[in-house]
Fold this protein.
Amino acid sequence: MLIATSYGLSLVLVINIILTFIIIFLERKNPQSTYAWLLLLWMIPAVGFVFYLFFSQNLTRRKIFKISSTERALTNTIIQQQKRDLTEQDKEMNDITWDNYGDMIQFHQNLSDAIYTDDNRVEIFTDGEEKFSTLLKDIAEAKDHIHMQYFIFKSSSLADRIMEALKAKALQGVEVRLLFDDMGAIFLKRIDFQDLKDSGVKVARFFPSRIKYINLKANYRNHRKVTVIDGKIGYIGGFNVGDEYLGLDLKMGYWRDTHLRLEGSAVYELQVRFFMDWRASHGEELVLNSHFMPDIEKNGEVGLQIVSSGPDDPNEQIKQGYLKMIHAAKSYIFIQTPYFVPDQSILEALRIAAKSGVDVRIMIPNKPDHLFVYWATFSYVGELLGYGAKIYVYDNGFLHAKTIVVDDQVASVGTCNFDIRSFSLNFEVNAFIYDQNVCYKLKEIFIEDMKKSIRINENRYKSRPVTMKIKESISRLFSPIL
């Protein structure tokens, strides 16, 4: 018995040593992640091995999303022309936008091939019932196609309403495609799939499980929420599909989120994003043509860029956009996020901004939906208190918004949280907005939410229980892999 136990321990030790070298080699470009994996591996060897097997795949060498030659040529032509226009300042742009953020527009063009458009109309939703009522109305009025993508799609009264609306349009001859993340829709009933397909709705899962509840790509989720209707109306933001997003979950309470409804040329960019995700999941080769990109009448003047990021690309495009905004701030930075687990670059940028006299305000929820992330969040916001940042805990339900607004001039709204998971492990998409009116509205929303929040000062933070301090410390150690 003792010999068998000794042999087993020796085998675990050998495996751990081998895995240690593998982790150091594979994660060498990310020291934070390396330290976290090694800590987990040696603290709980067997469990650490299983976690690494399921959650550590490197996707940066894989070509997951395909862009057609037509789409590539069109994007390159537009980007090159815009670069010439912006460099020569021939393009008619708002002087404030060009003077302060022309370099940011070019940055997203160079890093993300993000086309800048300035003929957009933007509507902001912060309430789930209002957002989904408007969405269902747009679905009912759809004439050609509906492309819908969500991270979470749960069996619920809201899902039933949406699926019935999609089935009705499909039976009318409208092309309907529904895409959701496999893990996010893991509890969706099988009969719902069949009903949708029988009605003519095309359905696909992103990174589907080969065996139910077992998915070796579980750590890499498609967190995007995008809807495109007739190529003219687009939705992007934080709301998923489930009754809790209507505030019907007693545990979570009122659900406070931020979502955008777009009209204008930016919808074309959301369409391309959906095409690429759809091809990767369904395999259908959609062709970008006038059918999916119809002529759009100009009914707005909002400038914006659609930027995507994911673990298949090491550039962390959305995070880099956040950094550009933070470094450009002169007056204020207002951030709302359910999870605040930044990497060192974001943390340093916010420290510098706060110490430079910029009014840095961060709003987080008052309750967790992921305990370890919640504890880590308090560790990081607590550190920023010492640099002069103002921290608010939303006390009117659950805050799920992913927004940052700077100086009434530039903002970002989308699916990307201020955490390492969103920066490097999830597939995300954000709208970067260059418009004073939209930014002012987002600032006013933040200020209104402050009235429903509790401000945490240094004394209050330092007086938290010892048990909370321990939880924060442990969670922060593992924050790079949370």
Remarks:
- The radius of gyration is 23 Å.
- The first strand starts at residue 117 and ends at 127.
- Residues 2-26 form the longest helix (25 residues).
- The chain has a mean pLDDT of 84.
